[in-house]
Design brief:
about 240 residues; alpha/beta; Rossmann fold; 7-stranded mixed beta sheet; 6 helices; 14 strands; disordered N terminus; transferase
Length: about 240
């Protein structure tokens, strides 16, 4: 059984201790989110919609795009969300360094960074400045089918070719390598016998949209807990003594 000690203390489950902070929702401030994209940004759109309809206790205050004219950047401009292009190209009028990007995000008082189809490696300066505050979503059940070169349709083709019976999205914390950070949440999607990569991709993406909103809500409500062994878990919204 799970036993909670004090409002700010420890909980124990099966002999493992967890740090607890049962702060009332009314005292939790809205969080500022930065989203990073490289393409159409469908996950970005899902999270942004959830912030505007009240499902996520936060706001997307800035978008970072690797391409000036990608679909995600165009959507952000339509919604009045500031757009930062990073990394900048050599022929850009203004060259933005990693340190400049950190300063810019600080100016927007960003609490959490969500990577949503951002294909560039995150600079070490940014990871050090936002420790345990950068998440990425990947279209397979990590650690399988992850790492450099595994993105988009390449992932789904590899899953089907392997004969794997299950796939699905993974949300994980970002470190200085591709897809190796601690896993926070996953959602299982069956791989059907006659699936094409496009069919599998569509089902996985459907679950990505739902999962990223759920995780964003947990972040903004301060329901992410780090176990003593360094594994992050999510406290249930309905019952603070249960974990997802």
């Amino acid at each position: 059984n799970l036993q909670c000690r004090n409002s700010v203390g420890e909980a124990e489950y099966k002999g493992v201790s967890y740090l607890e902070d049962d702060k009332p929702k009314s005292n939790i401030t809205r969080k500022n989110l930065a989203v990073f994209v490289s393409g159409g940004g469908s996950n970005f759109r899902s999270v942004h919609t959830a912030t505007t309809n009240g499902d996520v206790h936060g706001d997307v205050v800035v978008l970072v795009a690797s391409k000036h004219d990608c679909g995600g950047a165009e959507y952000a401009r339509e919604k009045g969300i500031p757009v930062i292009v990073f990394p900048t190209t050599k022929d850009s009028q203004e060259v933005l360094s990693a340190e400049d990007l950190v300063v810019a995000l600080r100016s927007y008082e960003v609490d959490f960074i969500l990577l949503a189809g951002y294909l560039k490696l995150i600079p070490a300066e940014l990871i050090r400045s936002y420790t345990k505050a950068i998440l990425n979503i990947h279209p397979s059940l990590l650690p399988a089918f992850g790492g450099k070169g595994y993105y988009g349709m390449k992932v789904h083709k590899a899953v089907i070719a392997s004969g794997a019976r299950y796939s699905g999205p993974t949300i994980h914390y970002v470190d200085e390598e591709y897809d190796t950070g601690r896993i926070l949440a996953q959602r299982v999607v069956p791989v059907l016998a006659k699936d094409t990569p496009e069919e599998l991709a569509a089902r996985v993406l459907h679950e990505e949209h739902k999962l990223y909103v759920e995780v964003s809500a947990a972040l903004c409500e301060e329901r992410v807990i780090w176990r003593e062994d360094g594994v992050p878990i999510i406290r249930s919204k309905e019952n603070p003594l249960d974990y997802q």
